Amino acid sequence: MFSKEFFEIIDVNRNEGISLEEVSVPHIALGLSSDTSFMKMVLRSINPSKFATEKDFDTENITLKEFTNLFKKDAISEKNTEALRRLALKKRKSDEQDESDVTIRELL
């Protein structure tokens, strides 16, 4: 499943949850947003009670289930999914070449 594989790639600290920063880095690097404000809006739409205040973005992480919801079918999600799929393929190729610990920022 693409979303699970990508979740694991961007979960930099391997805590089985993705912070606002971790989920925003690929979107900003790919030009899908200019800062974290877009992802805050997306996260609030997915789980309004969990991300109700600004402080929540510092203390709460995105679960795999919530992350998977980001990829439901619509025009914006299709563009997002395609860009992220290409990123995951780059990461996989770099892993196959046995490069040392490539970061998302390096891939972009």
Description:
This protein is mostly helical and 108 residues long. The chain has a single domain, classed as Recoverin, domain 1 (Orthogonal Bundle), CATH 1.10.238. The chain is 62% helix and 0% strand. It contains seven helices and no strands. The chain has helices at 2-10, 20-29, 37-46, 54-59, 64-69, 75-96, 104-107. The longest helix has 22 residues, at 75-96. It is globular, with a radius of gyration of 14 Å. The two termini are 22 Å apart.
Brief summary:
The protein is mostly helical and 108 residues long. Helices cover 62% and strands 0% of the residues. The protein has one domain (2-107): Orthogonal Bundle (Recoverin, domain 1), CATH 1.10.238.
Helical amount: 55-70%
Average pLDDT across residues? 80
Number of domains: 1
Estimate the global geometry from the Cα principal axes. globular
Can you tell me the CATH topology? Recoverin, domain 1
Cα end-to-end separation: 22 Å
- Highest CATH level, the class: Mainly Alpha
| Unreliable parts | none
The count of helical stretches stands at 7
CATH architecture identity? Orthogonal Bundle
Output the radius of gyration.
Answer: 14 Å
Question: Would you tell me the structural class of the helices and strands?
Answer: mainly alpha
Q: How would a textbook summarize the main sheet?
A: none
N to C succession of SSEs: HHHHHHH
The total of beta strands comes to 0
Beta-strand share of residues: under 5%
What are the main properties of this structure?
mainly alpha, Recoverin, domain 1
Topology overview:
Blueprint (H helix, E strand, L loop, with lengths): L1 H9 L9 H10 L7 H10 L7 H6 L4 H6 L5 H22 L7 H4 L1
Helix pairs in contact: 1-6
